[in-house]
Amino acid sequence: MKKLVRNTFMLAALPLAVTAAFTGSAVAQTPTLSEADKATSGKLYFERCAGCHGMLRKGATGKNLEPANAAKLGQSRLEKVLAYGTEGGMPNFDDILSKKEISDIATYLQMPPEAPPEWGMKQMKESWKLEVPVAQRPTKKLNNINLENVFSVTLRDSGEVALIDGDTKKIWGIVKTGYAVHISRLSASGRYVHVIGRDGRYDLIDMWYETPKIVATMKAGYEARSIDTSKYKGFEDKYAVVGSYWPPQYAILDGETLEPLKLISTRGVTVDGEYHPEPRVASIVSSHDKPEWVINIKETGMIKLVDYSDIANLKEITINSAKFLHDGGWDASKRYFLVAANASNKVAVVDTKAGKLAALVDTAKIPHPGRGANFNHPKFGPVWATSHLGADVITLIGTDPEKNPQHAWKVVQEVKNHGANSLFVKSHPKSKNLWADAPLNPDPKLAGSVTVYNIDDLGKADPKPEVLDLAAAANLGKTKGIQRVVHGEYNKAGDEVWFSVWTGNKTEPSAIVVVDDKTRKVKTVIKDKRLVTPTGKFNVYNTQHDIY
Ligand code: DHE
Which atom of ligand 1 is nearest to the CA of 182? Predict the structure, then answer.
């Protein structure tokens, strides 16, 4: 088997030459950096900025930062925005980057971007490593862990995932993965955890061993964020799919070995008919009712319904929606998929049964749902919720065209969040609560708090939320990094909700706060020096069954 090829291009020094063709009002000096500073800035740009602004800096969730635009802002303004963030959703970096790093990135942005190399089938196959062939894996579960209540937790800056036993709140195992695993998804059987690193490394973790173990790994590209598995009857654990940011493409893999099987480029024209060189793959979700994945292409605004029943003769339905598709989730019936076209301030609704767009809903600025939250509203029936990066509200959209057609695909209510710069909302079918975070808010008090609404109160004229300062409850003491409370996730029973307290800095302590959903009191604070920068948490059962 071939060795895993690591991402090296970002670390390589980039050429020094700076084109003088950089336009800008009264900018006198040519921006330049030493070779070493340019390489460091390139690496930091990749780690902290490329996700929002694109490798080619053409903009998506974040603004277009090609040299002409960056130069218009100028060195000093760029430094301020990088240091302190903006109310439009740009986070502050003064707590995790030094003054020199901020200044160098501001200069780097005024220099021309370089397209990273391609990563095709040949490289994918060379990177593929089958650590344990299927026939040599356990034939029964070798541990006493209640796997359905395990949480797969991203340890962002240590390049690891912690598998935490949700019953005992103890770390069951730590697995070395790619850099900054973005999401964990489950195989249809619930046995395997699939994790994708920001650096494109994909690991398959088998939970039937005494402690969790990687049984296969491959590299899907230089940058990736999304994966899912085949969940339709007859295809359980058969395939996996991985979307890349760079190169812009998705690959279909064997679900139990990660062997690359098919690669499809997503380069093409946008919904406006313009060619785009970097249409990145954003969220992917797997249908339970069809052999189909919903694959959202960020820059083009096209939603692909990919039929995996015959991958040699792959059928794709392409649905035009709106540009800058990002994250999303199912409605409660799992017929409709709602996805944020975030920089277009819209939510697109796909009817997966009919195979077409059901609606494009206008919302407040930059919706960012994660997978969103589903619940029965006392006045409007079934709704799906999203919070926003660019506005301090939580938006509720009606999702029941059959019994509540007057509310379907309309913003039925906007309630206040405690701040803008929110990333995730969460609820659970057994809960009466709706939770929202605001981790990217530059105000530490807001970034460290969550808003919680009683769902029954949402029928009142002026529903009042409770705001809980969970960073304070974690009692981590003073840290240089802002203690950002991020990503609520329920346990299997739906009676606890877990939040990460993320300092964004791997040398400082972080924690996970477990809140009793009924009393809203902190039940446990999980602290462990191995819990380095925890962010996303994925409960096995809820993720396997798309419960949110
Ligand atoms: Fe995410 C989901 C992309 C920054 C934590 N993030 C997603 C998805 C995409 C995405 C496309 C949907 C995946 C899916 O469902 O298949 N995220 C991006 C970015 O491009 C962005 C804005 C910038 C970047 O450089 O990556 C970004 N994301 C972050 C973070 O900084 C977060 C807070 C911390 C981290 O770990 O990097 C973060 N993103 C998450 C989490 C999810 C996610 C926890 C899954 C939410 C869920 O409940 O499913």
Answer: 36
Which of 148, 149, 141 minimizes the C-alpha distance to 210?
Answer: 141
- The Å distance, Cα 491 to ligand 1 centre, comes to 20
All structural domains of the chain, each given as residue ranges with its CATH number in brackets, are 2-108 (1.10.760.10)
**Ligand 1 atom nearest to CA at 537:** 44
* Residues in CB range of 312: below 8 A, 6 or more apart: none
Per-residue DSSP letter, 48: I
Question: Which residues, judged by CB distance below 6 Å to any ligand atom, belong to the binding site of ligand 1?
Answer: 51-52, 61, 154, 156, 180, 182-183, 225-226, 282-284, 326-327, 370-371, 423, 486-487, 535-536
Q: Which tens digit of pLDDT belongs to each residue from 190-245? A: 999 999 999 999 999 999 999 999 999 999 999 999 999 999 999 999 999 999 99
Q: Of 183, 185, 186, 222, nearest to 201 (Cα)?
A: 222
Please give the distance, rounded to the nearest whole angstrom, from the Cα atom of residue 313 to the centre of ligand 1. Answer: 31
Q: Per residue in 367-415, pLDDT tens? A: 999 999 999 999 999 999 999 999 999 999 999 999 999 999 999 999 9
Cα 321 to Cα 348: distance, rounded to the nearest angstrom: 6
For CA atoms 528, 529, 533, 536, the dihedral sign is: negative
The residues facing 449 across adjacent strands are 469
| 347's tokens | 């939510």
Q: What's the chain's Rg over C-alpha atoms?
A: 22
Distance from the CA of 515 to the center of ligand 1, in angstroms?
23
Please tell me the distance from the alpha carbon of residue 56 to that of residue 60, in angstroms, as a whole number: 11
The active-site residue out of 326, 377, 388, 407 is 326
Q: Which of residues 362 and 12 earns the better pLDDT score?
A: 362
